[in-house]
What we know:
seven-stranded antiparallel sheet; globular; alpha+beta; 19 strands; 8 helices
Amino acid sequence: MGAQSSTQEQVVFAVSSVDFLHGEVAYRVCDDNWIRPERFTKGQKDAIVAEGVRYPEIYADMVNCTSGISIEFTTDATHIEIEASVDELPSSSQKVIDDIISLRHSLDTPYDGCAVYVDGKFKGIHAPSDEESIIRIFLDGTEDTTPFTSIPEPQKDKQKTQKNPELTGDTLVYHHVKVWLPVLSGAKIRSIAVNGTHVTPVPKARPLFIMGDSLSQGFYTGNPALGYAAQLSRMLMCDIVNQSIGGQVFNAQTIADLSSYARPHRIIVQLGANYRYDACDEESVKKEIEEYFAALHDAFPDVRTYVITPTWHSDIIYRTHHKSCVESLPYILHEVVTAYDNMTYIDGATLLPRQFNLLADGDHPNTEGHNLIAQHIAQELAK
């Protein structure tokens, strides 16, 4: 059972958060039982930052971000405290923030961080740090409740429903709690402490793998629950394993040992936009694309895979290199993808209308744009 302790007015018990994770590929146990969830296998991480990749500094920053990972459970508690700590923003993520400030001249704070939802309703963004590593959630009019005086050391329980041994009975009030971890940084978690009778993990759903770049990672939404990938998870009632990396292009080595983790229900690939920032030639890019999809097919030969070409962009802020071959990408992708029976080609130009009010920075969609992309992808997957 989870460990418990008493305060003057309530009995508190705590459980390890590890059994409540969704969207992780693996996790590392750190000092004092802190858990660091991972989106990539060890082999993938090595390949992503290997010598010779296109943007090694950016990839090294992004590989530890927790995009798509969440904690999810039900409980009858009215007071919940989750031990969590968000990493300091890596330099590549800080540049995203700086770009937003330069465009808007202001920024909602905290930006990104941990997004809390209770019974489907947004309760705010939290950015806990090592100094104050607590996300406090008060329910049913208990906002004036005194914070827990202490949180017991978490204990991992083999039972799915973890019960407070100090409390008996049941309640008709159950709450569904979901906390999305950050898009632009990493995070570590430890315990979930409650004053209720139980904490029950929400069962993992069918996994949807998403291989993409900054758009799929969820840039420029400010809320990790509002990127198109996270929105798709709600629309399709699935878990997402978000393998997207800002700046990424097609690299067959990044498939690595992913097939040893789990079998996805479906796969979405949304890559290629970053070829526009540098000189490239069609022959080399086509070879990279062919190798990538050959590796993906070898790993998951019978998993339905949807391949999306880049959405539209403006050159007002981020200029396309004059020797880029990105305009040829849809034709290359169509030729390569249609050779596989399990793959479906989707024209990214159909997912986002050519309206500047749907872009955050002339390149990446804003929250409304992400919502439209999610809706259109969901329609494509339903065909």
